[in-house]
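Backbone-to-sequence.
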């Protein structure tokens, strides 16, 4: 094990992350302003948790949003880049390849349980001199069990691979408020509506309607974390009814947008 290092991104040099260093390696994420980490990959799997601020992670086909209290899992050898949107703090756990067998094969966002948070904090505080092997093994087992049991949240947006469907997806990701119907989008991209419906379902795992709602949800999380008022966010995302936006957000996130924004602000205020 290694002590958590309080320094900005990149968290751990990829060569060091790939080296043999026990089942888990730990690092801290600390950014005082917006920061971009270019696309990279490593042989270890990686869990990145946000304590304050907002992180977004991009891969070849996914975009993931990580608000405070959440984390992402990135499988081994999966290229990804990271953006910190303003002052951000968090943690990262690098998991050795042979310990990743029971962990997800695809990137995912999950809510950090109290047990996982405390286990990571305990392990990251170990002195440089190794703790008794049995104590380390028990904490490592807890962390791996919690990562394996974490439920996937609705903050992952998978892009289609069909060039016409991808053209539509990129336009909607840039402007989730665009209210054009499926038929109008299909005509714009020169694709049959039925083919468009099938491509989104097969290549993203979501219907066109659900994909567009996911894009709106993820933009809402970003805007709320940036301090925008709930009403302003609803209007920017194209909702005619504030109550409809609140109902969507609560259904997907388990909390009203105002409660999410308040929790985010409270996390930023922590020392």
């Amino acid at each position: 094990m290694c002590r958590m290092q309080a320094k900005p991104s990149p968290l751990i040099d990829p060569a060091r992350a790939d080296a043999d260093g026990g089942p888990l390696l730990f690092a801290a994420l600390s950014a005082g302003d917006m920061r971009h980490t270019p696309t990279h990959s490593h042989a270890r799997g990686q869990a990145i948790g946000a304590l304050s601020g907002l992180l977004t992670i991009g891969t070849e086909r996914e975009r993931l949003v990580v608000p405070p209290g959440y984390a992402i899992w990135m499988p081994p050898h999966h290229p990804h880049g990271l953006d910190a949107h303003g002052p951000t703090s968090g943690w990262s756990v690098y998991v050795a390849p042979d310990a990743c067998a029971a962990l997800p094969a695809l990137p995912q966002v999950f809510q950090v349980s109290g047990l996982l948070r405390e286990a990571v904090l305990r392990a990251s505080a170990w002195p440089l001199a190794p703790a008794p092997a049995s104590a380390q093994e028990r904490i490592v087992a807890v962390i791996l069990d919690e990562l394996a049991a974490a439920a996937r949240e609705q903050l992952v947006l998978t892009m289609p691979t069909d060039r016409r469907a991808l053209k539509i997806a990129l336009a909607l990701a840039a402007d989730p408020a665009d209210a054009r119907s499926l038929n109008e989008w299909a005509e714009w991209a020169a694709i049959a509506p039925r083919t468009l419906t099938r491509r989104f379902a097969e290549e993203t795992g979501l219907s066109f309607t659900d994909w567009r709602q996911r894009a709106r949800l993820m933009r809402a999380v970003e805007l709320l974390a940036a301090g925008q008022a709930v009403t302003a966010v609803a209007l920017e995302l194209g909702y005619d009814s504030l109550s409809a936006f609140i109902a969507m957000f609560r259904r997907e996130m388990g909390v009203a947008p105002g409660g999410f924004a308040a929790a985010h602000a409270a996390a930023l205020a922590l020392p």
